Automatic annotation (TrEMBL):
Residues 13-118 form the Transposase DDE domain. It comes from the Bacteria. InterPro entries: Tnp_DDE_dom. This is Transposase. Pfam families: DDE_Tnp_1_5.
């Protein structure tokens, strides 16, 4: 009985982040018709790295490592943008602000349209996202709350 109470209290100290990735999104850059070299990574790929940085309150280099590990856990063999690419392009992109993970949790949706962060309650009231015919890859991450 005592062990169960300790386990329950330990679980209550964790928040949950559900990461939803569209495996068919354009992770790598595409030609945009403008002169110059095509970007190696899409804006969404760079924003995803910035979202991980913001949500976990990490320095940029550690966020790149965590992003690589998350993609690996999801079974995606995608390269991760390097530090200098993200650092340079973050000036032109909106950065996802770390909201702090609540006990109920958050959903991080990543697809070609960009990145959305929703609370659990918001996820339930927006059926156009949940019932989409896309096949999402989902990863659940437990986060220790302070």
């Amino acid at each position: 009985m005592r062990i169960e109470k300790q386990t329950d209290s330990a679980l209550n100290k964790h928040g949950v982040l559900l990461i939803w990735l569209d495996p068919h999104m354009h992770w790598y850059g595409r030609a945009n018709g403008k002169p110059g070299r095509t970007l190696t990574f899409s804006d969404v790929a760079v924003q995803f790295c910035l979202a991980i940085k913001g949500l976990f309150d990490l320095p940029l280099r550690q966020a790149m490592d965590l992003t690589e590990k998350l993609l690996y856990r999801m079974g995606l063999n995608w390269a991760v943008p390097d530090f200098s690419t993200v650092s340079r392009r973050r000036k032109q992109l909106r950065e996802v602000v770390g909201y702090g993970i609540s006990r109920k949790g958050w959903h991080l949706l990543v697809d070609d349209y960009g990145i959305q962060i929703m609370s659990v309650g918001e996820w339930k009231i927006r059926p156009e996202i949940r019932n989409d015919r896309r096949q999402w890859l989902k990863l659940e991450v437990a986060i220790e709350l302070r």
